Amino acid sequence: MSQIYIGYDFKVAPLQPGTEILIAELGYAGFESFVETDEGVTAYIQKDEWNNAILEAINILDSDDFKIEYTFSEIEQINWNSEWEKNFDPIEVDGKCTVRAPFHPAKNFEYEIVIEPKMSFGTGHHETTFMMLQFILENDFEGKSILDMGCGTAVLAILAEMRGASKVDAIDIDAWCFENSLENIQRNNCENISVFLGDASLLSGKMYDVIIANINRNILLNDMEAYRKCIDNGGTLYLSGFYLEDLPIIKESCNNLGFTFVENKEKNNWVATKFKIS
């Protein structure tokens, strides 16, 4: 039986950080998939999880700082694989790594990741994912324990294992991402990745050499203390999912917890950063 969705088309002004905040709040309310548009975002929720009061908990809709308009309608399940075949082109990262879908021909790269993204975030096309892939390619992951927080398709976790990580935990709050990550891990023959459905509360008592978190500014700031508690001295923290203008507040939060800023990458005003614990 095909699954029926409710789709909301939001027009947001100003576009950023309004869209970023809206997506975060919708995610907590149960919306499972998002497609950013030129005017805002289209958000999807399964009809079985939807009710007329679903937007009452979305605080940004009542904010005087943003103007948000929306319409919604019922959507029959479409063939997401067919949609991705029309819209998903393979990407190449620094001549070393390619991310492609199963229907693309294989290419001769040192690292080849096959992703069937469906509705999950993390194909490598978005600037933040692309820059995090660059960080993983540029740095030593051999024999290290890794946390991929907000894993999406698990593309970063998969490359981390390919780069020699001995243990990778991949966590996402989105049930669709959880299922998609499991599929992609199997598709890429990964053996050292465990996937968990949940949030930073799952981190209690765990320790990692490296933490990768590509989420958004508000969640990063909220969860930073949890990251600090589960990263070993000498460990590395990679963060992305925010804009250049947010870098000072990210640095301040990290510095207050003992992280030392190392470097950042910038692509179309999106930023990815590297911090160390001495």
Query: Termini separation (Å)?
Result: 54 Å
**Overall CATH architecture of the largest domain:** 3-Layer(aba) Sandwich
User: Which series of helices and strands comes N to C?
Assistant: EHEEEHEEEHEHEHEEHEHEE
Report helical residue fraction.
Answer: 25-40%
Look at the helices and sheets and give the structural class.
alpha/beta
- The residue ranges in which pLDDT falls below 50 over 5 or more consecutive positions are none
Q: How many whole angstroms does the radius of gyration measure?
A: 18 Å
CATH secondary-structure class of the largest domain: Alpha Beta
Number of separate strands: 14
CATH topology name of the largest domain: Rossmann fold
Mean of pLDDT: 89
CATH superfamily of the largest domain: Vaccinia Virus protein VP39
The number of helices is: 7
Structure commentary:
Helices cover 28% and strands 34% of the residues. The protein is of the alpha/beta class. The chain has 2 domains: 75 residues, 2-Layer Sandwich (Alpha-Beta Plaits); 138 residues, 3-Layer(aba) Sandwich (Rossmann fold). The protein has a 7-stranded mixed β-sheet with strand order 10-9-8-11-12-14-13, with helices on both faces. The chain has a 4-stranded antiparallel β-sheet with strand order 2-3-1-4, with helices on one face. The longest helix has 15 residues.
